[in-house]
UniProtKB/TrEMBL annotation:
Transmembrane segments: none
Name of the featured protein: Chlorophyll a-b binding protein, chloroplastic
Major subcellular site: plastid
Entry function: The light-harvesting complex (LHC) functions as a light receptor, it captures and delivers excitation energy to photosystems with which it is closely associated.
Lineage: Eukaryota, Viridiplantae, Chlorophyta, core chlorophytes, Trebouxiophyceae
Keywords, ordered alphabetically: Chlorophyll, Chloroplast, Chromophore, Photosynthesis, Photosystem I, Photosystem II, Plastid, Thylakoid
Origin superkingdom: Eukaryota
Keyword Thylakoid: yes
Stated family: Belongs to the light-harvesting chlorophyll a/b-binding (LHC) protein family.
Location in or out of the cell: Plastid, Chloroplast thylakoid membrane
InterPro entries from the UniProt entry: Chloro_AB-bd_pln (IPR001344), Chloroa_b-bind (IPR022796)
Length: 274
């Protein structure tokens, strides 16, 4: 005669129900939602309640929106897509800066573009023409991306080469040739991507500030800190205490000249520090 056992799992979002047969016990897992128990949701502040418009459906949604910027559903969709794009650009930028400093440590990444040869010459007309071309192409891509958000699937087909088109996909995740291989479940990869992207955005801001304060790349600044960890910290470079302000010196010149064009390159601290 079998004795039915029901017990709540100590960890995880499942109940375990077992049937003892002789000396054997068979266990099966049932999700909490099937047992009438509300599953716990990971929050940025444990124990807090998420805003009503954040239902946990977006990758990396931990209920953080103190200003209610995403209360409008259409705006929330655009914010999520914007964060995703900025995260991807930041991951490329951070990886590129680190690789460049490893391969060419003699080149300061903040000034690397100034030392790159122009493909059409170094005249102002060539540079302005290249910038205009980049603005046009980027604007075209952004407009098509906006249409894809507004009407999913409306821009899947190539407008020139009609035989090429993307498979049916969720906006923001085109798949196909853009993701020929996914090392895991798509939902898991979405969460990992946004987490790494958020970290990369913070890292890029840190790279910029470190370059302006130390005049070095991230690895050079790290080496400076490791060489003297006590006196080489963020607090020794810049700090505000009662009666005293330590303002770091800007290591970046106010202007950079490239192909006869003067480009302002101000430091951020003049507006941030009193």
């Amino acid at each position: 005669m079998a004795t039915l056992l029901a017990g709540k799992a100590v960890s995880g979002n499942a109940y375990l129900a077992g049937a003892a047969v002789g000396s054997r016990q068979v266990l099966r897992a049932r999700p909490l939602r099937q047992c009438g128990v509300k599953a716990e949701r990971a929050m940025w502040l444990p124990g807090s309640d998420p805003p009503e418009h954040l239902k946990g459906e977006l990758p990396g949604d931990f209920g953080f929106d103190p200003l209610g910027l995403g209360a409008d559903e259409e705006r929330l969709t655009w914010f999520a897509e914007s964060e995703r794009v900025h995260a991807r650009w930041a991951m490329l930028a951070v990886a590129g800066i680190l690789v460049q400093e490893i391969v060419r440590p003699d080149v300061f990444w903040y000034e690397a573009a100034l030392k790159s040869p122009m493909p059409f010459g170094n005249s102002p007309a060539a540079i302005l023409g290249l910038v205009a071309f980049e603005l046009f192409t980027m604007h075209y891509v952004e407009v098509r991306r906006a249409y894809d958000l507004k009407n999913p699937g409306s821009v899947d087909q190539d407008p020139i080469f009609k035989s090429y088109s993307l498979p049916k996909h969720e906006p923001g995740y085109p798949g196909g040739i853009f993701a020929p291989f996914i090392p895991g479940t798509l939902e898991e990869m979405k969460l990992k991507e946004i987490k790494n992207g958020r970290l990369a955005m913070l890292a890029f801001v840190g790279f910029v500030l470190a370059a302006q304060v130390t005049g070095k790349g991230p690895l050079g600044a790290l080496g400076e800190h490791l060489g003297d960890p006590i006196s080489t910290t963020i607090f020794s470079k810049a700090v505000v205490v009662p009666g005293q302000v330590v303002q770091p010196e800007c290591k970046i010149p106010p202007f950079a000249e490239y192909g006869g064009i003067k480009i302002p390159t101000p430091c951020l601290f003049s507006g941030l520090w009193p």
